Amino acid sequence: MEEKNRKQFSVTEELLASHKERFLNFFMDYIAQLLVFVIAFGIADSIAQNNNNKDFILNFMKNDIAKYTFTAAITLFYYNVFEIFTARTLGKLVTQTIVVDEYGEKPHHETILIRTLCRLIPFEPFYFIILYFMDKPSRGWHDSLSKTYVVKKWELDEKKRLFYSLQNK
Q1: HSE (CB half, 13 Å, CA atoms) of 158?
Q2: How far from chain centre, in Å, is Cα 141?
Q3: Model confidence over 84-115: pLDDT tens digits?
């Protein structure tokens, strides 16, 4: 078969992770981010204490912009590090899901950055609740705006293997 006649694999709705899997991903990743937050905040406090900033924690707790910025930085760090390098977070490892592009491939790092920035949209997590009650596929704004999909890894691997084996006949 000529190379130009080959078809490209595309992610289909039946490969998408379920609402339950997406919720478990969110919950486990939230716990992991809390752990990263505690570690990073402890380091920041130690540095502040060493520089004679004894009121660091008190000042931080009073400053909403500082709290949001620190939390957003943790979110950006966590998701970018995991998804750029492995296309999976700790939650996705447990649920055996993976983030992919429309062709079932690992997304480019710029796509992951867009995906992660979209997670900072206020009320984005609540969109999943709306999708659940409307019986719609579980694709949040961070999925649709970045053109990514969270799919069941083993099903993706099997469907791609079958698709490309049929293409080679």
Answers
A1: 7
A2: 11
A3: 999 999 999 999 999 999 999 999 999 999 99
Range of the domain at 144: 3-167
Total domains present in the chain = 1
Determine which helix (DSSP H) or strand (DSSP E) holds 94, and give its type and residue range: helix 90-95
| End-to-end C-alpha distance for the chain, whole angstroms | 8
pTM value is: 0.86
Q: DSSP letter string over 116-166?
A: HHHTTSTTHHHHHHHHHHTT-----HHHHTTT-EEEEHHHHHHHHHHHHHH
Q: Quick one: pLDDT at residue 1?
A: 44
Residues 6+ apart with CB under 8 A from 56: 44, 45, 48, 49
**Integer-rounded Cα radius of gyration of the chain:** 20
Q: Which residues contact 87 (CB under 8 A, 6 or more apart)?
A: 98, 99, 100, 106, 107
Residue type for 137, please?
P
At 36 the pLDDT is 96
Beta bridge partners of 71: none
Confidence of residue 125 (pLDDT cuts 50, 70, 90): confident
